[in-house]
Amino acid sequence: MAHSYTPGLKVLRETIVTKDRVLPLKGEVVVTQGQTVLPSDVVAKTDLPGNVQMVNIANILNIDPGDVNDVMIISIGTAVTKDELIAETKGLFGFFKSSVKAPVDGTFESISEVTGQAVFREAPIPVEVDAYMRGKVESILPEEGVTIATKGAFIQGIFGIGGESQGELKIIVSSRDEEITPDMISAELSGKIIVGGSFISLEAYQKAIAAKVAGVVVGGFNYSDLEPILGYTLGVAITGSEDIGTPLVVTEGYGKIKMGDRTFDLLKQFDGHSVSINGATQIRAGVIRPEIVIPLKDAELTGAHKRAATTEGIKAGSLVRIIRAPYFGFLGTIVSLPPELQKMESETMVRVAEVEIDGKVYTIPRSNLEMVETN
């Protein structure tokens, strides 16, 4: 039977989700293995080195760089406050002294007799990594971070913006083809992850941001509306670092596309649950997909779960989503995987799949397909 490996998009009712929570440089892990954590719990922390400020003592005092140590009032390693006196010339008969003051609060780190430059480092910048989702600490990497594991529902979108967020899941539409309109957004939705159907307009999304909604999950969004939100044209780089306050997860594609029935039904099933979402996306090498994680209690689990990292190949009968134009975002079922290469409109020879979409069969390059993994 024909079989092909392709990136997978997951819509799982029950799975094991693991997340590595790692510091940008070595620090301290503050939880223990097996400990139960909440999304906002700090699991590791460190201090980033403060910014460096340089002062050319020799130039300011009009002295030779080799003489800078003679005029320094403080020694290396001394903590200073901004505008504190740090260097001073002897002057003439005790008069006409020239002086230099500290540029920032920080520490006097070094001085060069070659350049006359003194280096001051500002206070360290504290960095804390939270758990992101409710779960247990599965493993610890000393001084670096932890792996958090949880059992629950796991849904990946096709595109997103904004970083991580947590909140109560709130379905605000009655069906998967209904749009989120501005009048649906109110102050009562602050801190909640809201779910729509086929679309959210720019006006509605901007209102959600203003209302401090914790996140938006919807079927479609206009690509042209990204620039007014971000303030720049989005390229092919990874998203997720945008400081917009309200992450957006698009499950189907650009434009008005009703949310997949499996996705909508799964989200509707867990309306009111605490969820974690992440809008980070990378389409090309090292694919990263936006996600919704819904941790479940033991009583809500059936035991029929598997790890979300499991990847299977597509074959006849597989549910797939098309990830490039002209059918971007459409869901279909694999009819067959012809082994021979076929010529496309671009004159290139590629391996293709025959995909049934709404009762009609289309020939689609396999590289344009993403498997939708369900359970």
User: How many individual domains?
Assistant: 3
Q: Could you tell me the strand content as a percent range?
A: 35-45%
CATH topology of the largest domain: Glucose Oxidase, domain 1
How many helices?
A: 5
- CATH top-level class of the largest domain: Alpha Beta
Q: How far from one another are the termini?
A: 22 Å
Number of strands: 30
Radius of gyration: 28 Å
**Percentage of helical residues?**
under 10%
Inertia-based shape: elongated
* Biggest sheet overview: 17 strands, mixed
For this structure, the quaternary state is single chain
Briefly, what is this?
This protein has 375 residues and is mainly beta.
Give structural notes.
- This protein has 375 residues and is mainly beta.
- The protein folds into three domains: 8-14 and 151-306, Glucose Oxidase, domain 1, CATH 3.50.30; 52-122, OB fold (Dihydrolipoamide Acetyltransferase, E2P); 319-374, SH3 type barrels (Roll), CATH 2.30.30.
- It is built from five helices and 30 strands.
- The chain has helices spanning 57-61, 68-71, 202-210, 226-230, 261-269, and strands at residues 8-22, 28-29, 36-37, 42-48, 52-56, 79-80, 85-88, 99-101, 106-111, 117-122, 125-130, 135-141, 145-156, 159-161, 164-171, 179-180, 192-195, 199-200, 215-221, 248-254, 274-278, 291-295, 306-307, 319-322, 331-336, 342-343, 349-350, 352-357, 360-365, 369-374.
- The strands form six sheets. It has a 17-stranded mixed β-sheet that branches.
- The two termini are 22 Å apart.
